[in-house]
Specification:
Blueprint: E1 8-12, H1 17-28, E2 32-37, E3 50-52, H2 58-68, E4 72-75, H3 91-104, E5 112-116, H4 139-154, E6 159-165, E7 167-169, H5 180-185, E8 190-192, E9 198-199, E10 201-203, H6 204-213, H7 219-222, E11 226-229, E12 234-235, H8 236-248, E13 253-255, H9 257-272, H10 281-287, H11 296-302, H12 309-322
Parallel strand pairs: 1-2, 1-4, 2-3, 4-5, 5-6, 6-11, 7-10, 8-13
Antiparallel strand pairs: 9-12
Length: 330
């Protein structure tokens, strides 16, 4: 896998947020790309590479794998949401089974499978990193725990890598344009006074660079390993203020934490009535809790990525200003 030759690469979920950027990066490097997704590409230029299909359809993924015999499979197809129950997220687990089955059905075939999980399979980094120390506290996180366990239970004879993206942001984000960036731009985002929680973010351009670099290094360096992909953990207030200054010329508004707590409790009630709310207790807790991830091994092997934080913000704000309601919606 360390050769620099062009490859045939299958990307499940290549029409989504990270998938769109990944397909773009792989095409730019001259690879043959097949985007396996039930939804059309976010970018019109990607239409020639799209196969309309659902990863829940086992015969469909088996047929595409048999037809193209990709050298590399990036598995990004997923249902990513903090809301909903596991029945809505079966693709996160069953989809992994279908990829494994599709590969195993071809005798002598051994692609590299790069599976995208999430930082939410475990809590913040504490001490040494144990890739099998799981502590998911959301349904989505648990489905991704299960997806990693499926790989270890069924595919130890295959060449696979697991990526755990941190809180990824950038152009085509599926929800930020209509939520946090919108609230920031309107001056409605409220942040607790004095809070400087350290959070793990990742500009999508850097994340994709790390994911692509994983197929350039010797296979032994990545085989059966887990990599957190993203940027170095940072003060969340810096991230927020940078977007606020870029969008409205001033930092985000600060409010006493006690007042925000009261507003969050009202949000809990609103949510219980199935009504939208910009903040609730769960969101306030996430806003004010440190969440560091062990990205140092990723940086050492796959790099930190080519974009500075300021470049990422500038690229994202430029997209927001030209596409204020656009997003990859899955």
């Amino acid at each position: 896998m360390a050769d620099t030759g062009k490859k045939t690469i299958l990307v499940t979920g290549g029409s989504g947020f990270i998938g769109t950027h990944l397909v773009e990066a792989l095409l730019a490097e001259g690879h043959t790309v097949v985007n396996f997704d039930k939804k059309p590409p976010t970018l019109d230029a990607h239409a020639p590479y799209w196969t309309k299909a659902d990863l829940m359809d086992a015969p469909a993924i088996a047929a595409v794998v048999a037809e193209h015999r990709p050298d590399v499979i990036y598995n990004l197809a997923a249902w990513a949401s903090l809301a909903g129950d596991a029945s809505l997220m079966l693709v996160n687990t069953v989809g992994v089974d279908h990829v494994i089955d599709a590969v195993g059905a071809i005798e002598g075939y051994s692609p590299v499978v790069l599976h995208v999980s999430t930082q939410m399979v475990a809590g913040p980094a504490q001490g040494s990193f144990d890739p099998e120390a799981f502590s998911a506290d959301t349904v989505y996180g648990q489905t991704k725990v299960d997806s990693e366990k499926i790989l270890r239970a069924r595919a130890m004879d295959l060449d696979w890598v697991v990526f755990r993206p941190t809180n990824i942001w950038g152009p085509y984000h599926p929800s930020f344009a209509k939520s946090i960036w919108r609230y920031i731009g309107m001056g409605l985002y409220l942040h607790p006074e004095g809070d400087h929680s350290i959070r793990s973010y990742g500009y999508v351009g850097n994340v994709v660079s790390q994911m692509v670099n994983a197929i350039k290094v010797p296979l032994a360096e990545v085989r059966h390993k887990v990599f957190y992909v993203g940027d170095a953990p940072m003060d969340s207030s810096v991230w927020l203020d940078s977007f606020s200054v870029a969008l409205r010329g001033k930092p985000v508004r600060r409010f006493p934490k006690g007042l925000l707590g009261a507003i969050a409790r009202v949000g809990d009630l609103t949510a219980s009535l199935k009504l939208p709310s910009p903040i609730n207790s769960g969101r306030l807790k996430r806003m004010t809790s440190d969440f560091r991830t062990p990205v140092e091994p990723t940086f050492a092997l796959l790099g930190a990525g080519p974009f500075s934080f300021d470049e990422g913000v500038a690229n994202t704000v430029a997209w927001l200003k030209t596409n204020p309601t656009s997003s990859a919606d899955h």
